Amino acid sequence: NRPTSNIANVYRGTFVHSTQQTALQILEDELLGVDTDGKIAFIERGAELDRLSRTFGFSPTEVTQLAQHEFFMPGLVDTHIHAPQYSYIGTALDMPLLQWLDTYTFPVESNFKDLKFAHSVYSKVVKRTLRNGTTTACYFATIHTDASLLLGQIANDFGQRALVGKVCMDRNDSVKHYKETNQESQEETCRFIAELLNKKYPLVRPVVTPRFALSCTAALLGQLGTIAKDNNLHIQSHISENKEEIKLVLELFPESESYTDVYLKHNLLTDKTVMAHGCHLSDEELVLFRKTGASLSHCPNSNISLCSGMLDVRNVLKHKVKLGLGTDVAGGYSASMLDAVRRTLDTSKVLTIQNPEYDTLNFEEVFRLATLGGSQALSLDGQTGNFEVGKDFDALRVNVAAPGGPIDLVQCKEPKILLEKFLNLGDDRNIVEVFVAGRKVVPFAEPTTE
Ligand code: GUN
Ligand code: ZN
């Protein structure tokens, strides 16, 4: 007579993840149970099968055994991605940031007033990122409230965990029709938040999104800080991406001591804030991040593609600032977080070429940034980021030797080497299944709302 089980699935095999203490913990022949709410009920040695099956009331015959060359890792966390910019991904990278925004980005984003166009692009970006193993995404949409709500709906339908931001900008001198009045921006932000929360999507949350200091009046920045505070919401924006941008910000906000101080003065630096880039932040500014609990999103593909700069990740970690990785589609030309991992390693190696004393990042550290680090940067580490009991089961089932995949020779069975190979040369063909909160979201079950 077994107790009524609340265990939905049990997996046995190799699990790799990061913890507070170690960048890479490898658990071989481990058992992980997922309960009917999608949470991790236990993660213990395989030898404990009999006891666990009695305690949790499941049959040992129901256990799913991973194959050779397979392992589970936590889902990837993309801490910064522009969903509308997926429409021109892989093109238009021939200009520095500010000209790139005026020439390509603002004109394209203004088209997302059209909900049909928005639906088509947003479905594609959510599916592509999920297939690439992004279980959590922190999205910028556009200034259009209804299209931004649609992005939330699509993420929910496909089962992706998401923070979704309706972009706020009441200043734009180049594309005059792509901006809001101050009042519109405030009112529409409040409508967006209320309507998205009202949907009660379990995994999708609104994030207050001033585009960046140059797109917003001081009044709007202050109002958005208040809205975030009153509703206890996440905040996202951009900071210190490019030198020209920094110069203009300091001219526009002469009473501020630094770019970081602009956001600080408007109550936009909180422990639920994530700022993209930060390539050129001073040590004093990093101290402000640390003190407020605000985090950074490192987007190396974008930083190189737009010739913005190279973030010194080691220095950010030394300052104990929370840090995750982002694709920054489409300043970045890849929607895969595996690319963000590789570009992070590349950038660290370029810094080492420039200064041989530099403490180069290793792949284990970058693996942590792409998973647990990202969840911490988004203040979602209570729910996701690794395989701790009580967290949601957000996971990738990886087969390093997947037939038809990019990896031909797998001579070694050592999990650490398998992970390194996957991070360096794997792709979506190696990601055989993706789970978010225990639900299998890849391969897709097409939603009925198409
Ligand atoms: N700064 C303000 N807007 C943007 C954007 O869309 N992309 C990037 N990379 N930086 C920005
Ligand atoms: Zn961005």
TrEMBL record:
The pathway it acts in is: Purine metabolism; guanine degradation; xanthine from guanine: step 1/1
- From which residue to which does the signal peptide run? none
Name of a matching Pfam family: Amidohydro_1
Q: Which reaction does it catalyse?
A: guanine + H2O + H(+) = xanthine + NH4(+)
* Keyword annotations from UniProtKB, A to Z: Hydrolase, Metal-binding, Phosphoprotein, Zinc
Q: Which GO terms describe its cellular component?
A: cytosol
Q: Does the keyword Cell membrane apply?
A: no
- Biological-process GO terms, alphabetical: guanine catabolic process
- Keyword Hydrolase included in the entry's annotation: yes
Amidohydrolase-related domain spans which residues?
Answer: 72-441
Its EC top class is hydrolase
Give the molecular function GO annotations.
Answer: guanine deaminase activity; zinc ion binding
Instruction: Give the matching InterPro entries.
Output: Amidohydro-rel, Guanine_deaminase, Metal-dep_hydrolase_composite, Metal_Hydrolase, Metallo-dep_hydrolases
Q: How is the cofactor bound?
A: Binds 1 zinc ion per subunit.
Which cofactor is recorded for it?
Zn(2+)
- What family does this belong to? Belongs to the metallo-dependent hydrolases superfamily. ATZ/TRZ family.
Subunit comment for this entry?
Answer: Homodimer.
Under the heading PANTHER family, the entry gives: GUANINE DEAMINASE
According to its UniProt entry, the function of this protein is described as: Catalyzes the hydrolytic deamination of guanine, producing xanthine and ammonia.
Q: What is this protein called?
A: Guanine deaminase
Record the organism.
Zoarces viviparus
Lineage, top ranks: Eukaryota, Metazoa, Chordata, Craniata, Vertebrata
